[in-house]
Amino acid sequence: MSLLEVSDLGIEFGRRRVRALDGVSFTIEPGQRLGLIGESGSGKTVTALAIMGLLPPNAVVSGSVRLGGDELLGLNETELAKRRGNLVSMVFQEPMTALDPTMRVGRQVAEVLRLHAGTESGPARERVVAMLAEVGLDDPERVADSFPHQLSGGQRQRAILAMALINSPDLVICDEPTTALDVTVQAMVLQKLDEALTSSGAACLFITHDLAVVSQVCDQVMVMLDGRIVETGSVEKLFTNPEHPYTRGLVATARLDQVAPGQRLPVVEDFYSGGRR
Amino acid sequence: MKRAQLVTGLILVGAVIVAALISLVWTPYDPIQVVPGQRLLGPGWPHLLGTDGFGIDIFSRLLVGARTTLIVGIISVGIAAVIGVPLGMLAGQVGGWLDQLVMRVSDVVYAFPALLLAILLASVFGASTLTAMVAIGVASIPAFARVARAGTLQVVASDFVLAARGAGTSRWGIAVRHVGPNIAPVVGVQASVGFATAILAEAALSYLGLGTPRPTPTWGNMLRDAQQYLFVAPLQAVWPGLAIAVAVLGFNLLGDGLRDYLDPRLREVP
Fold first, then answer.
1. Can you give the pTM of this predicted structure?
2. pLDDT digits (tens, 9 = 90+) for B51-97
3. Domain B67-229 top-level CATH class
4. Exposed e or buried b for every residue in A212-238, given b needs 16+ CB within 10 A?
5. How many domains does chain A contain in total?
6. Which residues in B lie closer than 8 A to residue A112 (C-beta atoms)?
7. Is residue A255 part of a domain?
8. 3-state SS class at A49
9. Mutate to test the interface with B, among A102, A109, A157 (most CBs of B within 10 A)
């Protein structure tokens, strides 16, 4: 049985029924890492929020999202809260705003344990410090006692990573976890994410717009365009033999080393111009 | 420069608190006992600020009056905050029709003059410190509800609340652990400004005879007593007036200073 089964997921927003997702279907097996790439506004984050049940109240959802066999759509807030952080957790894009400025980082990471495992604060602290060390923070004791504004972006993003991983969820959804970081920190965070996922055996839905990042973490990739999945396949296949013209455009723009000097750089529109809104 | 406001506010408020504390253990003269032979003395020695129309030492009455002023401030701000803040948080977090209901009702209360409410209460239950505190407290609920609601809306829309919900925190948990601490600064500022308003309102009510009745000294009813001797002993009205001005100014400065101090956009880079 697949861990996550999304079938024919459609989402519309507001009274005017703006269509954000249309007939999205995919599955994630236990331990599998699936990348989801697409440009901004293509529906990647909405997909993640739909799985988490965190869509705003004006979203109209159709289709089915099954986690471990249970249908998630239509569950009430209490049932969803039991699963969030326990079976599925999420790493958010903005490290600067995803931590509560009034709460010490260690306590924030420990919240997940307190909520789901009922761990007392004493033992929880040891696990928090161990987890912060595991995601590559040099001085985990000090980080645990710090407020978010006392940490750098990279430190915060790793604390958020620790928060998502500490309760060993079956599925971790990463929504552009490294987009806000500079390239060196990005590489380090990705490596730590890779190690942590391997050691816990969690599956991962990795959302990004960066082909290089996706190839570092994932084995399977989906390409999303205007709320639809236009292509699915292994990372190698996507890079060497992209089928959809939009994917060909993406790959070509990422491979700038193959452009002869003096030639115009390729843009996605050279390959795909139809269907743009 | 930013700190100057805060420090001045703290000093003035501190002076009022010290005066109230001293009055608990010591006053130069009895603040209530009428002394017929010493009416309307001017400032000097041994009566520092003179005596009033009943021959009572004004300085002693001022000290005891600070106590009433602070108690009225604390209780009425307490009533307003304890009712207003949870209502505002509820309205902000639940939204929809409940939000509309709470805010429209609070608009109605806001539009109703506090003085009229106090007169109503005083005519039903009799004029006392308690009715004044309840009237001021109830009239200040909307201000707290509005501030709390605005803060809650801002916090609930933030990424860290989404992240906390993603970690499985319940609505109640969000309110207690995330919304509460994050709106505490703005509620604190409102409390300080509300304190100033309450002091002024209590003085007005006492002056009109709708607040604390004689012989308990308050700055408001001292002003009232002084009124009839205004041409004989004008300084008598100056002292309680000055005390009210100092207290109101102090709490307003404290509120403004806190606002600037807590607002990260205005914080000076060290």
1. 0.84
2. 877 778 889 999 999 998 999 999 999 999 999 999 999 999 998 89
3. mainly alpha
4. ebbbbbbebbbbbbbbbbbbbbebeeb
5. 1
6. 167-168
7. no
8. helix
9. A102
